[in-house]
Amino acid sequence: xxxxxxxxxxxxxxxxxxxxxxxxxxxxxxxxxxxxxxxxxxxxxxxxxxxxxxxxxxxxxxxxxxxxxxxxxxxxxxxxxxxxxxxxxxxxxxxxxxxxxxxxxxxxxxxxxxxxxxxxxxxxxxxxxxxxxxxxxxxxxxxxxxxxxxxxxxxxxxxxxxxxxxxxxxxxxxxxxxxxxxxxxxxxxxxxxxxxxxxxxxxxxxxxxxxxxxxxxxxxxxxxxxxxxxxxxxxxxxxxxxxxxxxxxxxxxxxxxxxxxxxxxxxxxxxxxxxxxxxxxxxxxxxxxxxxxxxxxxxxxxxxxxxxxxxxxxxxxxx
Length: 319
Ligand code: GLV
Ligand code: GLV
Description:
- The protein is α/β, with parallel strands linked by helices.
- Helix content is 35%, strand content 14%.
- The strands form two sheets. It has a seven-stranded parallel beta sheet with strand order 8-7-6-9-10-11-12, with helices on both faces. It has a five-stranded parallel beta sheet with strand order 2-1-3-4-5.
- The radius of gyration is 21 Å and the shape is globular.
- Bound molecules: glyoxylic acid (GLV) (2 copies).
């Protein structure tokens, strides 16, 4: 094929970009830093393909400046940053990176769950501050995880992977999803509940829904009031699924016990109320952040770009 022009907004881990460069020209050398929007808008008119990040808004303004664009490859599974409807109308494929990051993201949900239940971060800081004065019967008591009830909100690939891990802990797993999935219920021993019932039943609530208009602020003040006072909320999905101000209040007032968060409503800003609380563990949106997974995600976006530039439908096209 004649050499097409690809815009990559940021350098990606692994060797995939080198592979892409064998066939295509890059519109700029991939940088270690975030690409300013003005630079993206300046380069996009020349691009046949775009590889972008979930932190970049690929909206009408960007897409309408890109007459040659064949494909937008999002280096993430979630694609709420892209105006997919407008891309589709403009005849542009949109792709994402499903499956490869499912297990890593489920691992992180569990890391946050165990970390909050057993107060690992509080313990770490106590030891570092030289305040560990010896074993004590009541030192940093946490919660049992084994044999408790895990509530999965959104039974997609990641939700199911979080659920599967619970069997090793002898937990009961309940779930709510837009679509009930009876085949999975039997296979993985899951019980379907309404969202309200799940919130009342669960000791741990893991959010695994995609962000859509329907899931925006799915969990707010009313939902926290349904949860157990001993409940722990884990969010590795999208920050906007939770009303963050209501979460701060629920954590402060003891309406729920703790939260483990990887995502925030206005990333990279974090609600200042969260920063002062000890009963929340804050991770910097690293759900898929393992060396292997991030390299595989780069291979996926590159393969999808090459496929689209050859005139075929990319494997991970979502439109
Ligand atoms: C990360 O949040 C992703 O959507 O891949
Ligand atoms: C969402 O896209 C998932 O993989 O669960």
